[in-house]
Amino acid sequence: METAAYSARMEKPILQVALDFMHLKRAVQAAREAVEGGADWVEAGTPLVKSEGVESVRALRKAFPDKVLVADLKVMDTGALEVEIAAKAGANVITVMGVTDDATITEAVKAARRYGAKVMVDLMRVKDKPKRAKELEALGVDYLNMHVSIDEQMIAHTPLDELKAVCKASGLPVEAGARIIIVGGAIIKAEKVVEATKAIRKAIDKKIRIPTGLYKKYSHDELFEAFRKVSTPNLADAMQKRGVLRGILPRNPHGVKMVGRAVTVKTADGDWAKPVEAIDRAGKGDVIVVDVGGGPTAVWGELASWSCKVKGVAGVVIDGAARDIDSIVEIEFPCFSRHIAPHAGEPKGHGEIGSEIECGGQVVRTGDWIVGDESGVVVVPQELAVEMANRALDVLERENRIREEIKRGGTLSSVLELEKWEKVG
Fold it and tell me: How far is residue 419 from each of residues 28, 240, 402, 424, measured CA to CA in Å?
């Protein structure tokens, strides 16, 4: 979500829908539903303009002749030319980056005046936003956009404190704060865009909270909840295929879900001493991850699983073998392993607990996040956990919208226009 301050007095806050799509067809359909739900302004998002060109602006102007149309060009140079291109295509408002030089902004403002458009300046990456807001006001811009980038949102950054400072510093009449609310994902990723827009419109107009359960950005203290919501395929997509433990399979056939912090174990084939000792060191909600180097002799079984179950350990992952699978399944203890074997070795005590290990071809450290389900296991490095949890939720939410479009009669190929977007060369 973004917020914008503006100079014209309005009766109520404006709801602007940001169409951050790759595909024009999908963008137009989502915009139609958003307008039906109460969106006031329509924005050709930067990804859409880059993907489909300024023709996307023309298409949206044709589809919504009476709506204010924003072209989120994020102009950094040739201010006059780029504003002219967008204005001639039908844009009422064109965005320019606040970090660019004053000459570019001045030329953009002049061009906007010639073609009856307005300039919105995006304050993303501006270090001193209140100071820059005063400078931009003097340059004649029409709107200030307090933009937190999608990538910053993934690390749970919020613009609210900076928004208050800008509103206080700027001479633009901003009344009680932001007067344009720019919403992207919470509308365009919704299965039912009309209903989602109506809910946001109601929250804005009545100044009330309306919980949705979606589109929230999770902080470090909320990671368990976030990881419980997503699947390992969501995580693998978010991490660009990194973190997947290769060859490690779920041994619980139905409905298994495992989330927790890793307690690492290094041991030799068949030596089950350190894996069992790790149970005493693990806390409630932890996952024991065992590096056996792929050995075929079991280092885990029913009694170890019962010990974890009683203590509240969330599960076990073994790059090696487990046994007593029928009993493990019966007590509903999450178990993932490379092999199943009936025979166990001896508790010799080789290895260590808590050190960096390798499991399924991935480095795992104590404290990393482990997520497992029926599709497999993914390790998330602890320093990336907040970002990857939020990116995985973004994948989940985008898939919700695609699924809805398929249910309406499309196919995955037609919705994503795969033939058009196959890699060239």
Answer: 20, 22, 17, 11
